[in-house]
Design brief:
Blueprint: E1 13-16, H1 19-30, E2 41-52, E3 55-62, E4 75-76, E5 79-81, H2 97-104, H3 109-127, E6 132-133, H4 146-157, H5 162-168, E7 172-173, E8 178-185, E9 194-202, E10 218-222, H6 224-230, H7 241-251, H8 256-261, E11 272-276, E12 279-284, H9 305-308
Parallel strand pairs: 2-9
Antiparallel strand pairs: 1-12, 2-3, 2-5, 3-4, 3-10, 6-7, 8-9, 11-12
Helix pairs in contact: 2-3, 3-4, 6-7
């Protein structure tokens, strides 16, 4: 398989690829290296949002500019790969696995729940945001205590699981505070691929985001339009195509309430790679470009490579 064969026609939209991916594509095209596409790794990304007098803001991170780091200076949203342990003995309130599966249009209720649970874990681990309610049904309004800092550290180091921490405190997860916004699958030409669902996260009243970086990355609140303004539109070094599409769609969303209430088309975006005049581009068809997505266009189930991958444990179970 050669990248040249993916060039068919001028698509509805093309975005530049990073220098790293461009280098790989040149190697593939020259025949020096043969691509061996991997099955995308399921992952969840968290887009915390808040209302301000100037409009909606998102919590975004920027990779540090340090030697040896991949994607230096790139804007992104916190994310984590799915772990089956995220849903072990996980107490739930309001939404159950079946509801998660309906929202993600999946047959496998266990994996659908895992996407939501991993997003909740990433919110707590990386941002200090807990999406849970107490025994009286009240949403937790503060995690700014030594107890929760200790719990957060246990999650990070793998000494505790999300369900364990929640159950020990007689809490239940509130996955309805997450709303699926976009699903992006990396192209087969990338060495490490992910099948990522981006979730909007309504930060509970009284809680504050406390970003924890593992490599001195920056994290802070910005308007989506400002993120796009700070990312060079002619280059992909500072913002991925997926992050760009998320920011574009949220830039036209007035409030957190409207973002959470909006029913999004979560059909997976499967970008292609095309080449024009020795320049590589990420290609999005009319249907793939989610810029104007605001309602569900299809109601059928969605299946991608990562959904078909058979693995042991929870992911093999169909409901």
């Amino acid at each position: 398989m050669s990248p040249h064969r993916l060039t068919r026609h001028r698509p509805a939209r093309e975005l530049p690829v990073s220098q790293q991916l461009s280098h790989l594509l040149n190697l593939f095209a020259s025949g020096e290296t043969v691509p061996t596409p991997s099955v995308p790794i399921p992952a969840a990304a968290v887009i915390c949002v808040r209302d301000t007098p100037g409009g909606i803001q998102v919590f975004v991170t920027r990779q540090a500019d340090a030697p040896g780091l991949i994607d230096k200076n790139r804007w992104a949203f916190p994310s984590a790969e799915l772990h089956p342990e995220d849903i072990h003995h996980l107490p739930l309130a309001v939404w159950d696995a079946a509801k998660c599966a309906r929202l993600l249009r999946k047959d496998n209720t266990t994996k659908a729940l895992n996407y939501f649970a991993t997003a909740a874990r990433a919110a707590l681990e990386l941002l200090g945001v807990l999406l849970a309610e107490d025994v009286d049904g009240r949403i937790i309004s503060s995690t700014d205590t030594p107890l929760w800092e200790d719990s957060r550290q246990k999650l990070v180091t793998g000494r505790a699981r999300l369900g364990q921490l929640v159950a020990e405190r007689d809490l239940k997860m509130r996955l309805d505070l997450l709303s699926p916004w976009m699903r992006w699958v990396n192209t087969p030409w990338q060495l490490r691929r992910h099948d990522t669902i981006f979730f909007i996260c309504a930060v509970p009243h009284g809680q504050t985001v406390s970003f924890r970086s593992v490599n001195e990355s920056w994290g802070g609140w910005m308007a989506p339009a400002k993120v796009l303004e700070n990312a060079d539109p002619e280059h992909a070094e500072y913002i991925s195509a997926a992050t760009r599409l998320v920011c574009e769609s949220l830039a036209r969303t007035p409030t957190v309430g409207s973002a959470m209430a909006r029913v999004r088309d979560v059909s997976p975006i499967l970008p292609e790679i095309v080449r024009h005049d020795d320049q590589w581009w990420v290609s999005l068809s009319d249907r793939a470009d989610p810029s104007e997505r605001g309602r569900i266009r299809d109601v059928g189930k969605v299946v991608t490579e990562s959904d078909l991958e058979k693995s042991s444990g929870l992911f093999g179970a169909e409901s």
